[in-house]
Amino acid sequence: MRYQITGKQIDVGEALSTHVKDRLGEVLDKYSQRPTDAQVTFSKSGHEFVCECTVHLSTGLNAAARAHGTEIYATFEECAEKMDKQLRRYKRRLKDHHKDRTSPVETFEASSYILAADTQDDEAAEPESLQPIIVAEMETKVPSLSVGEAVMQMELAGSQMLVFRNEKHGGVNVVHRRDDGNIGWIDPRSTGQ
């Protein structure tokens, strides 16, 4: 397994890197037999350390956890515990998902844009143009999943929303966490048929 352990304006020493590899390896060995790589990023926010961890599993799914605290080792331990809890919760489904799949999840490229926020304070002011200002343009991967797998991927990644290609009919779908705590599913293909 490949580890990428980095620090944003923080020097991550050899001792912390070794601790991360050992501890994360223990967590991943318990629940997923074949993770491909893990990215762990440490940063500082005010007086607290922030640890973000993303693990790419051989099934094509990603698990993510985030924690913050005043000590860097304790922050990582909290992040590892969150990862452990997520993988434990989805262990059966991860194994079932891998059993049904003979190859990793397929993805296709899509454009992703970051639009500038409207910073006008006066609500009555007319915008100069209806065209949004594009701050950044990137490429992203859209996975081809079943609806159940998409919900599981959204939960594992800790996201509020996931765009995916529905394996059943090939159309683009969205699952999202609603304000009431339930999961919403948008399938434009299912209307009008």
From TrEMBL:
Task: Please state the gene responsible for encoding this protein.
Answer: raiA
The UniProt GO MF terms for this protein read:
ribosomal small subunit binding
Lineage, broadest ranks: Bacteria, Pseudomonadati, Pseudomonadota, Alphaproteobacteria, Rhodobacterales
Q: Which GO terms describe its cellular component?
A: cytosolic small ribosomal subunit
Protein name as it appears in the record: Ribosome hibernation promoting factor
Could you give a single Gene Ontology term from the biological process aspect?
Answer: negative regulation of translational elongation
What Pfam families does the database record attribute to this sequence?
Answer: Ribosom_S30AE_C, Ribosomal_S30AE
Which function does this protein serve?
Required for dimerization of active 70S ribosomes into 100S ribosomes in stationary phase; 100S ribosomes are translationally inactive and sometimes present during exponential growth.
Provide the Sigma 54 modulation/S30EA ribosomal protein C-terminal domain boundaries. Answer: 131-184
Q: Where in the cell is it found?
A: Cytoplasm
Q: How does it assemble?
A: Interacts with 100S ribosomes. Associates exclusively with 100S ribosomes, which are dimers of 70S ribosomes.
Q: Main location per UniProt?
A: cytoplasm
UniProt KW keywords = Cytoplasm, Translation regulation
- Describe the family membership recorded for this protein in Swiss-Prot or TrEMBL: Belongs to the HPF/YfiA ribosome-associated protein family. Long HPF subfamily.
